[in-house]
Amino acid sequence: MSKIPKLPISTKENRPTILNGRPTSRILAKTLSDTDKKLLILNHTKPIGRNGVTTTLPAPRVKRAASVPVAAAGPSAKTSSKTNLNPKIPPYDYKARFQDLLEKHKVLKSEYSDLKEKHVETAEDYEKVKEALQSTNTEKDIIREKLLNTIKDLKDRTSELQNLKIDYDITKHAYEELQNKIKILNEVANNLKQKSLEYDHLDKEYNDLSQRHKSLQEETDALQNILALMYKDQRILRNTVQDLKGNIRVYCRIRPPLETEKSKPLFSLNVLDACSIEVEKTELLSSAKKGKSQHSFTFDGIFTPHATQEDVFTQVSSMIQSALDGYNVCIFAYGQTGSGKTYTMEGSCGKENYGIIPRSIDMIFSCMEDLKRMGWELTVKANFLEIYNEVIYDLLDSNKEQDSHDIKMVNSKGTDVYVSNLKEEEVASAHDFIRLLMFAQRNRQTAATLNNERSSRSHSVAQIKIAAINEMRKEKFTSNLNLVDLAGSESGKTTQRMDETKHINRSLSELSKVILSLQTHQSHIPYRNSKLTHLLMPSLGGNSKTLMLVNINQFDECFGETLNSLRFATKVNSCRTTKAKKNLTMVDNF
Length: 590
Ligand SMILES: Nc1ncnc2c1ncn2[C@@H]1O[C@H](COP(=O)(O)OP(=O)(O)OP(=O)(O)O)[C@@H](O)[C@H]1O
Description:
Helices cover 52% and strands 17% of the residues.
């Protein structure tokens, strides 16, 4: 940095010719009297010639003269002024006056040279001051520039500071967040630590439980084995009981009159015991013939008009159990139109009104759970068909034009049959099955509307096929459960539709023939004489269990048909098939 030059030290002698900020000349002009001023002008403007005539002198620079300090003029100047006014010199004494003036001039000259010297000094000082001023100015410029730079720098720094402040705030915020996260992480870490401890504890418990589970599993396996053996014994026992009861069993169900039928005359019906009834036509007693028409019938069981759907199924369920044990089973409802066959087999709305078919599937699926526990895996399939005028219709196919359906042999042994082009659905639950049953019912009703009460005049068959496999015991079996709602069994005399009746009666009479042939152990059983017997062959033959429900009503007008039904049922009941054989096979490879 350049140094500002020092001004010369101010003294009385070198003090600048500025007094109170005013130029010295002006002060001088004020302090001098008018006469002195005139004289001063004369002395400095006109030089005095030898002859006393004033010569023209170059005009003194007013400034310089004026710059003479009053102090510099000294007491002589005052004296001169006084001399000038000296009244002692008479005006005519020019010589004295001249001398006086010379003196004054000498004084003034000396003052002038002093002043000149001082002027030179002052000029020098001035130059120095000027130089100092210049250098000061330069320095001032430099400083100014520096100051500007500094201000700019300051501004930049301020802006930088602002940015830094923002950065700081952001960083501070991030830091706080980080702190929070660290806090949370610490909490998580603590929790984890806690959980880890809990996990260790649970792991230990799990290991203990695993051990217990293992030993329990072993116990369960042993129990399961015992259970399976017990189940096997139970099955054998059940079958023995059924064998003793007979493989064709017949139950009679008497339908109650409906509200609308309450006024209809009834024939006399006495329930003698759990298995026997007696029917008597009172009208005949008062007739001219005077004969007493009284008939007794004995079956495996009687269901009175008060018997509920549940009562019926309780008796029937042993047959369903047989199907689950691997036997072919056929349950059919026989009786005249309106005797309650469909109600017995399918039932009506509401669970308590469910008939044998929906209850059977419920039982199959609930038993399936027990069988699963014993290592059995069951597959259930179902199909629904109708035989009308010796033609088979698929009730799961809603197409009006169906492919023809024929009954064919499953294998060369001829022990099992199937129906060609028939839709068969796998059933995963009882609900699934009910859905299919309802679909079949709808299709049957649609066909009935189109074809004049076809439903009463056709045989309806629900086939449930069970396939079971036990990998653990290396056993498997299949069984067919046929649930049949037969066509109304009216005789030809009582109906208008002869063609239908012919077909129905033929098939029912073929059914009767098959049963009789089985009863008398004929070498040839005429299964193929009707579609119905052909279809039911596996369920009617030796390797099967059959249950017939003969449905009757008590109306007087139906007495003849009721007798026919009861006689047919008696014929069936007297038939005892050969001992049923279970379809169980031992398997090496699954
Ligand atoms: N045990 C019963 N309790 C109450 N109502 C019954 C009973 N049996 C049948 N019904 C009712 O009697 C009517 C005739 O029964 P259902 O239709 O079952 O006879 P069906 O023999 O099947 O006749 P179809 O041969 O015409 O099919 C139906 O309204 C049915 O609900």
